[in-house]
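Milestone M4 deliverable, item 7.
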Amino acid sequence: MTWIDTHCHLDAAEFDADRNAVVSRARAVGVRQLVLPAVARNNFDTVRALAHEHGVAYALGIHPLCVNDAAETDLAALRDALATHRDDPRLVAVGEIGLDHFVPGLDQAKGEHFYVEQLKLAQAAGLPVILHVRRSADALLKHLRRIPVSGIAHAFSGSQQQADTFVALGFKLGFGGAMTFDRALQIRRLAQELPAEALVLETDAPDIPPHWLYRNVEQRAAGEVARNEPAELPRIAATLAELRGWTLEKTAQVCGANARAALPGLAALAD
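Output delivered:
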């Protein structure tokens, strides 16, 4: 049984001390493929190098939480990087891009500009996108109707109507650690009721830890760590299997096929 983690920030500083061990633990439990999205110009080369070092996939893009510090030259650098590496089989998407309407202090007009320009770059490069969606689904969808690309709506937590619209536009929806919390009623309902072909699995490691890794503010202040990692994916998948009434084998097969449909470049890479 093999798994695909469609969203993992392996380049994050949280993994600096044991990155190779993190990959080894993932492979030991059947997580054979990872997708490493960039978040800013200064880690384009890093995610690409890690993808080649570990035999996984990567995406290039500018994250909405990084847009405030970005410039037009960063969009030009992304355009150049996509052109330079267009024949790299490990480059499978433009991402992580999108909009964030939750974090205060973001320049929303600038964020929308960067999102639209990156959609255009993805369309020109013939690549799918990996979208950051946080209280921003309607704004994202507005531009997707005008600039048609497909891909993955990562860590989806929107409404049923928004989910249906993303799916109708050719997107898969990413489910991960948040789905494991009993109180995440809307996310769990979507995971249970959406068409099977709409679902992909992810960790967003080191972020969005599942409930068994979660630490509250007091625990974190006391030094307890809540780091997520891709080796958690099969246990996260067991939650989806339980919600759907599937076996783990069926869950791996369905979500793996969906990941390859969303990011076609994955199909050419060995697990």
